[in-house]
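Annex B. Sample input.
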Amino acid sequence: MSPSSLSALAEEQLGLARAAQSGRSARTVYGGSGHRLRQTLVALAVGKSLAEHDSPGEATLQVLRGQVRLVAPDQSWTGGEGDLLVIPEARHSLYADEDSAVLLTVALG
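Annex B, continued. Sample output.
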């Protein structure tokens, strides 16, 4: 397996997110079907969000660029570049306070 530059991928996905009407872009970096782990780079333009959704199970969010807010019913967490947020096992949403790229890591099995 060859190494991946998360910095380069973050910049690429941020460019796509800025150009998209939804203000979002995502690309699976590793895993998925047949694996026990999935890592997805998600980019959000400033002011955009991932609407409230169910927890994917055990998961973390590493902020690669910008600043995001992870919001659950009774709490919220702010993460900036270099921060690691544990995703709660509850419905939650994600907001981009700046143009942002995050690495979502989900345990699948």
